[in-house]
Amino acid sequence: MAAARGRDYIAVMSIAVAHLASRAVIAVSGPDWRSFLQGLLTQEVETLAPGELRFGALLTPQGKLLQDLFIAGTEDGALLDVAAADRDAILRRLSMYRLRAKVTLDAVDTPVFALFGGKVAGEGLHADPRLPTLGARAYGAREANADEDAYEAHRLALGVPGPADWGSETTYPIEANFDLLAGIDFKKGCFVGQETTSRMKRRGTIKNRMMPIVFEGPAPAFGTEVLAGALRAGEVLAGRDGRAMALLRLDRIADADLTADGRLVRVERPDWLV
């Protein structure tokens, strides 16, 4: 056992470990915690096992993306990994839905870490359910050897959207590729916003998707139009020098010369986005 733990330690130390200060944790427990979350989130939680991590979202009744979150199974409930800036608002919304359910919701001081950049394995690590190449997440004190910006650059290089790209109550989760990143379980029962989400998938009415774009120089400002000639083809979201996410109209980007802020941009469609 000691030798196995040693190998795990070496594996962890060979990759990047970043403290995600932008994330915070809500502990959910009580006899009704599974049924409570099951009726709210896009992800299946009835079968969530201790030590397992799933990705999902909390939607508005109209099916718009309110918050992304990770659900980590524990021995007596689950940890919700949410945006730190919105944790209090999420707690208020969850409390609004609680009614008579026997559920306890607590903001806890558990730090969130991302481990990435290599083969991640070890005790206490939760494989990121979105993509294997995103690495893993860990909850609890850990020594960091990278910063959150390095993790965000890694995520963007893989073409995976993040919270800075979708804002609140403006985007459908399918537009942010939650259906392709294991963020929606279409086989589970009803959840808040389920009708609109299922209809979009069933009818194939997906007109817009988030994809990375590449360009020369600094990223255009958030909201800058992406043009296909004179036609609007989408808008730039969050980014950095040379690369950004964009919400794009699928019918206007094929074989088109695209520009943003007067500069040529190119869509770099990731392999996982089919």
UniProtKB/TrEMBL annotation:
Origin superkingdom: Bacteria
Keywords assigned: Transit peptide
Residue ranges annotated for the GCVT N-terminal domain, each copy included: 23-117
Domain CAF17 C-terminal: 208-273
Cross-referenced InterPro entries: CAF17_C, GCVT_N, TrmE/GcvT-like, YgfZ/GCV_T_CS, YgfZ/GcvT
One Pfam family hit: GCV_T
GO biological process, alphabetically ordered: iron-sulfur cluster assembly
Keyword Lyase in record: no
NCBIfam families, per the entry: ygfZ_signature (TIGR03317)
Protein name: Folate-binding protein YgfZ
Organism: Caulobacter vibrioides OR37
